[in-house]
Amino acid sequence: MIQKKLAVVTGAGGGIGRAIAARLRDEGFRVVGIDIKLCPDADVSIEADLTRWPEHEARVTAALEGQSIAALINCAGVQIKRSPVEEVALGELDRLYTHNLRPIVEVTQWALPRMVDGGGIVNIGSISGAASVPGLACYGAVKSAVHSFSRSLARELAPRGIRVNVVAPGYVRTPLTELMLADETRLAEIVSRVPLGSVADGDDIASVVTALFTAPFRYVTGVVLPVDGGYLA
């Protein structure tokens, strides 16, 4: 029996992360999902608070069953309420760092010795990290740091043939955005700024993430790829 390639997905219990886990399984990967809540679409789901990563390393390593990692997707993260900079509490800034950047670094550090040469990493960024969005200056700054980290990592890992890319979603229907998008006035305002005329769903993002691990993209690394319906255009 041919062993399936192994993918590790953080944030696999959320809307985008769960869609990624499901799509990777459909594409023949064995998926280990990690999140604060379980992912029914992963082959192995591990409940873990990624802000306390060192406490969970041993359990996740055991779940690999000695298999090397072919794909790492760092999708875990949080959002904050849109507000002017002067109203952002420093605690919220710390929360963005500890949820949206530090786990990417820590999980990547853990994964690299266990990753096959020629494997790949996709980090989930945001269009807020690629363009200014009023009211999201701190969120955008942290996501921009994710983009910068990923580009630098792509150069570091190129000698191993490990490609590192960022997928930067625009507006996506997830449990985190459900309340906002339920407001018809707000939804209409958002859609009016998206050339394709709609918001995305999780599978729109998952399909692009999965494609980045396929042969047609073997020469693509260090890229921040917006998946935003043309918003940044």
Provide key terms for this protein.
single chain; 233 residues; alpha/beta; Rossmann fold; 7-stranded parallel sheet; two-stranded parallel sheet
Q: Which CATH C-level class is it?
A: Alpha Beta
Low-confidence stretches: none
How many structural domains? Answer: 1
Say what the CATH topology is: Rossmann fold
Number of strands: 9
Could you describe the 3D structure shown?
The protein contains 8 helices and 9 strands. It has a single domain (6-227), classed as 3-Layer(aba) Sandwich (Rossmann fold). The protein has helices at 15-26, 57-63, 90-100, 102-111, 137-157, 178-182, 184-191, 202-211, and strands at residues 6-10, 30-35, 44-47, 69-74, 115-124, 163-169, 172-173, 200-201, 224-227. The chain is 36% helix and 20% strand. The protein is globular and about 50 Å long. Strands 3-2-1-4-5-6-9 form a 7-stranded parallel sheet, sandwiched between helices. It has a two-stranded parallel ribbon with strand order 7-8.
Give a brief rundown of this model.
The chain is of the alpha/beta class and 233 residues long. The chain contains eight helices and nine strands.
Task: Indicate the topology.
Elements: E1 6-10, H1 15-26, E2 30-35, E3 44-47, H2 57-63, E4 69-74, H3 90-100, H4 102-111, E5 115-124, H5 137-157, E6 163-169, E7 172-173, H6 178-182, H7 184-191, E8 200-201, H8 202-211, E9 224-227
Parallel strand pairs: 1-2, 1-4, 2-3, 4-5, 5-6, 6-9, 7-8
Helix pairs in contact: 1-8, 3-5
